[in-house]
Design a protein that fits this description.
Bound molecules: 4'-phosphopantetheine
Helix content: 25-40%
Shape: globular
Distance between the termini: 36 Å
Order of helices and strands: EHEHEHEHEH
Largest sheet: 5 strands, parallel
Length: 150
């Protein structure tokens, strides 16, 4: 079984995240969309909502399971037998940042490979922080999120 973990805060899930998962579906037998919960981090949206929205977004994808985890991503990968971590790249800044994390994870767990998929140019400017900004100022975020934030 080719099992991948797609970790993130998903505060909230964006169309950019959705695109990466859908592109990855043919590549893996199972994909865990894994919400990494850090007790010291402040999130905009409660975990129950983030979970509900992601489950709703991938209700049609039988290979996708949505879960919450605490601690290291590689520990979660080992727990579920995943040999791949999936991350999306929008630009070179993402690459610089993600490369260091992937290297750190490789040192911690050499058996787990990080796989990067590129965002489409139309979605390369989309981020959860952009969506949060629009949400806070009652802006129109519908172009970036496939559900209503309520
Ligand atoms: O969507 P984000 O905010 O980029 O996701 C962050 C997440 C959850 C992927 C990251 O914070 C994470 O991996 N947390 C678990 C701790 C960990 O494994 N860190 C990397 C190795 S030090």
């Amino acid at each position: 079984m080719r099992i991948a973990v797609f970790p993130g805060s998903f505060d909230p899930l964006t169309k950019g995240h959705e695109e990466i998962v859908r592109k990855a579906v043919p590549l893996f037998d199972k994909i865990y969309v894994a919400i990494g919960e850090n007790a010291n981090k402040k999130y905009c949206f409660p975990i129950e909502k983030r979970l509900q929205w992601i489950r709703q977004a991938f209700a049609d994808e039988s290979k996708v399971e949505v879960v919450v985890y605490e601690g290291l991503t590689i520990d979660f990968c080992r727990k579920v037998g995943a040999r791949f971590i999936l991350r999306g790249l929008r630009n070179s800044m993402d690459f610089q940042y993600e490369k260091d994390i992937a290297e750190a994870n490789r040192h911690l767990a050499p058996e787990v490979e990080t796989i990067f998929l590129l965002s489409s140019p139309e979605l390369a400017h989309v981020s959860s922080s952009l969506v949060r900004e629009l949400y806070h100022h009652q802006g129109n975020y519908s172009e970036y999120v496939s559900f209503e934030l309520k």
